[in-house]
Amino acid sequence: MAGRKKKEGEGEIVATERAFTVVVEQMKAQFKAFGERLDGMHEAMDARFDAVDARFEKVDARFDAVDRELGLVKDAVLTHDRELREMGRGTR
Prior knowledge:
rod-shaped
């Protein structure tokens, strides 16, 4: 088979296509690495948010306990105030 005669500029086009292919492959590899890193960050962020959620649940439980205790103190103060008023009325 006889060699095909190259048209003028055909060699430059092939070289440009190869260079373009190399650049595209490099970009593809970089995007893949970026995506993998992004997945890792997503997992790390999920873990941190889970830890923060757990801490907030503990804080919420503590506030619930404080609310209950405050309610008891309020009831005791109101009861004590009422009893003092009744005692004051009885001494007049």
